[in-house]
Amino acid sequence: MVQATPFLLVLFLALGAHGLSVKKCNLTGRWVNDLGSNMTITTVNADGIFAGSYHTAVTATSNEIKVSPLQGAVQKSPNQKGQPTFGFTVNWAFSDSITVFTGQCFVDEDGKEVLKTMWLLRSRVENIKSDWKATRVGINVFTRLQLPE
Ligand code: BTN
């Protein structure tokens, strides 16, 4: 028992230090995706509910692009291990469409946070016969927007 104590102490410290050093992916902040769209997530509450704004770089319409609100949720289960899954909806302020994104917040091998997402863009169509052409699908990769120093 006496011999085991220092060993257990070292093990405990090593595990503790490892736990402390693992960087977690945090959704709050400003992000840019591979299309050049900008997104800001303002607050994430204790239940994982969040809100923010989205400035798309592109549109499927001929309308003037406006900054649009988003609302979402990030998984708060303990199994997420600092790389949580999430989803959010953008209710476009300048078109009749809605986009839903789902994804996971990763920390890559360089320690950089990356959001890997898939999206569905639902456009409004005039009638049920046109439903087949109403949905687009794609992927977007977001990285944290670096502020100039
Ligand atoms: C519209 O055109 O009706 C609204 C804008 C849609 C922009 C889409 S959403 C998925 C993709 N990712 C972006 O950042 N912008 C486009």
UniProtKB/TrEMBL annotation:
Its main location: secreted. GO terms for cellular component: extracellular region. It comes from the Eukaryota. Pfam families: Avidin (PF01382). It is found in: Secreted. Residues 1-19 form the signal peptide. Keywords: Biotin, Disulfide bond, Glycoprotein, Secreted, Signal. Disulfide bonds join C25-C105. GO terms for molecular function: biotin binding. Belongs to the avidin/streptavidin family. Forms a strong non-covalent specific complex with biotin. Homotetramer. This is Avidin. The gene is Avd_2.
